[in-house]
Amino acid sequence: MPQLNRDTRHPVSFTLNGRKVAGTAEPRMLLSDFLTHEIGITSCHVGCEHGVCGACTVLIDGIVTRGCLTLAVQADGATIETSESLAHEDGELSDLQKAFKKHHGLQCGYCTPGILMSLTAYLKDNPKPTEEEVRDMLSGHLCRCTGYVGMVRAVLDYCETRGG
Ligand code: FES
Ligand code: FES
What we know:
alpha+beta
């Protein structure tokens, strides 16, 4: 049986925010590192690197996923969305992003891309959440700045404004 070399880099390609991207990754390389260092996006933030803080959250084939708990090679062939996909092509923020801005749902912004991606998936299935449900959903993300109050207001306002 041939010996596996852990340093061998493997081709990895997937659709990222609507465009095909490709690179190579060692078998142990995390998706969060691949997105940042190989592809060059800036929104897949790394905080805890063990699945707790949620800063690295992206959508893989529509499923909320921690980039730090996923190997880059596992994403081969997938469709990945990050917060870079949310604004319109002309740079205008999405309605959810505007609501975060309006209600001061962010401060340093480190947690924000991951939270926006979790909310994007969550609100598809739960278009009219209660405040308690929003808080419960946000409990999967750590924010050291805001106390979450502005985020909760932003989500509720967004749902109200778009008519749920
Ligand atoms: S860096 Fe991935 S959950 Fe914290
Ligand atoms: S806005 Fe700073 S960590 Fe959430």
